[in-house]
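ARCHIVE CARD
Drawer: 12
Card no.: 0347
Subject: one protein chain, sequence and derived structure
Cross-reference: see card 0346
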Amino acid sequence: MSSPSNTPNAANNLQTAVPLTLVSGGSYRQREAQIAACIDHDQKHDKSIDRVAVLLEGLPEGDLLLSDTQQLHLQRIAPGCFCCIGNLTMRVSLNRALRQRPQHVYLGVASSEHLDNLRLTLQQAPYDQLLTTEESVSL
C-alpha cells in the first residue's frame, strides 16, 4: 500500500483529471513516432498544452524522436509487461510523471496482449481520479 507521500493526490496536486493517450503494439520506434505525432497534433489544436509526460516502454532504436525537456517529462521504461510484474514499474513511473503536473500523459506499451489489465489498473484508485483515457491507439 502506498503512503500519501508516494502517491499523487488528486485534491492536492491536480485540479482535474489529466487526459491520457495509450499507444500499444508495434516497435519502440513506431510507438515513439506515434506519440510524437500525437503531441504535435494535440499542441497545435490546444495551445494551452505546454507540459506533457511520456512513459515509453522498450529499448530505443536508432535516433531518438523525443527528449526530456522542461515541457516534456520523458521516462523510458525497460521492456516487461506491466501487469505481469505487478504494475510496480508503471505505478512508480506514472506517479513521478504526475508530480510534474502534465496537461496530458502519453503511455506507450510494447504489447497489446494485456491491455485490459492495464486499463483496469488505470481505472482503480488513485488513477481513476487522476487520469481520463481519451484515446487508445494500437499499432
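Annotation on reverse: Residues 28-45 form the longest helix (18 residues). The radius of gyration is 14 Å.
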